[in-house]
Amino acid sequence: MSKITGKTETIENVEFPTFDPSKAAEQVRAVADQSVEQSKEVFSKLSSDAETAQKAFESTFEMAKTTSNEMLLKTIAALQANAEAGFTHLEALVAVKTPSEFFELQTAFLRKQIEKSAEQAKGVQALMLRASEDVSKPIKDAFEKALKVRKAA
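The structure corresponding to this sequence follows.
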């Protein structure tokens, strides 16, 4: 077995900085003030973002209400037109004198109703497409604005 001899040194004239409580209190106060300022800034940004989101949702709900009213009116108009066409057709059927006239009248009515239904469906489809764009626009705009702000920061 061999012994490893280690070298030890003693430090005799080393000065350690003295602890000054007044400076420590000032540093703690400075850190606390900085934390308060940062908290205020974060709260202000959150408050602003929440207000923007609230306005976007209000706008979206208002647009949805307007669009649903429009859709309801369009649906009622289509139902009314179809009912009137049905009653007019029924009056015409009452006046029919021959079976061939009946089938001719019925075929023409069905063809006209199919065309009208296709036209109404296209109108509803166009309204729904516009409605989905209009309803989502305020939220989309708010989201894009928030992304631009975050990218700039």
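DSSP finds two helices and no strands in the chain.
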